Amino acid sequence: MQVVADFESPWAMTFLPDGRLLVTEKAGALLVVSPDGQQRTRVDGMPAVSSDGQGGLMDVVLHPRFAENRLVYFSYAEAGPGGKGVVLARGVFADGQPPALQKVETLFRATPYVDGDGHFGGRIAFAPDGHLFFTNGDRQKFDPAQDPKATLGKVLRLKDDGSPADGNPLSDKGFLPVVWSYGHRNPLGLAFDPAGQLWAQEMGPKGGDEVNLILPGRNYGYPVVSEGDHYDGKAIPRHATRPEFEAPKVSWNPVISPGGLMVYTGTLFPQWKGDLFIGGLSSQALIRVDVDGTRASKGDQWPMGERIREPEQGPDGAIWVLEDGRRGGKGRLLKLTPAR
Fold it and tell me: Phi/psi at 131 (nearest 5 deg)?
């Protein structure tokens, strides 16, 4: 484990083609960081964010054709009429002194905006066919996860310009045309595996953190069913009692408080190719989930001694990890390689 850098409440990272990283900090900074962590520069042109509670600057992802179009996609919480919500935006990366995002545009806003500072979701993943998937948390409002006229508690499928993708599975069933799946609580991890399957993890209530295989049009049950219960102790029926809802492939009780999610495809750890890696917040762990086709099961759980917000695969197959940097955490960037 190599300590590469230290940040103020980092949230997400992605690698540029030359090996540098883009790192988001919760308060609103997007940073360009050298692979050795010795150089970091703040990117100009970022919008203001609402960083109260669980809000802030969140995910950052490159367009699949970044080498041609230089497009960087990011998500953040903003305050607006009626409350707060999560925003999907993009800008053109200009690698100058200082670097900047130019022509920043808002592509999508969650609906509705509501009061409170929790459960924004905000994860972004590009599908192999170029479509963009975007998570919206339930905003701690429960029922919107089942509401066809809200994007809250949903996984969305968009074109790369933020408009609804053609052929979404629920648009002829009264749902908003962007909805791909629903009945989610707070999906904070989203990634495609080498077979093109979409995996997500989400924070459960009191117990019941989940890994789900995201399938078109499926209802994942929250808040009608869960593998956990409400924080006030009120019981929630389990998925097994309602087979019409899609059950998680893996769940945890007690919770791990999952942060980011990645699918490992590198060669430094060939025994884990195709497996999921999850950052554990309250569990202060890096968690591996073993994937076998459409099945998944618990693998390793390595204690890290700090809240882990995000794992990411580096260009050489190393596993890079961001500590959360909140609740007394350090906020470091770590590089994990095989023991010699």
Answer: -70, 155
Asked if 320 contacts 297 with a C-beta cutoff of 8 angstroms, the reply is no
- Active-site residue, selected from the candidate residues 63, 119, 184, 239: 119
Residues 160-187: pLDDT tens digits?
999 999 999 999 999 999 999 999 999 9
| 119 in catalytic set | yes
d(CA 285, CA 151): 31
Region of residue 188 (phi > 0: left; psi between -120 and 50: alpha; otherwise: beta) = alpha
Q: Quick check: 81 pLDDT over 90?
A: no
Q: Phi-psi region for residue 255, left (φ > 0), alpha (ψ -120 to 50) or beta?
A: beta
Taken in order of first residue, the domains within the chain and their CATH numbers are 2-336 (2.120.10.30)
Whole-model pTM: value is: 0.98
Q: What is the DSSP string of 124-161?
A: EEE-TTS-EEEEE--TT-SGGGG-TT--TTEEEEE-TT
Question: Which strands, in side-by-side order, build the sheet including 71-80?
Answer: 57-62, 71-80, 83-94, 100-109
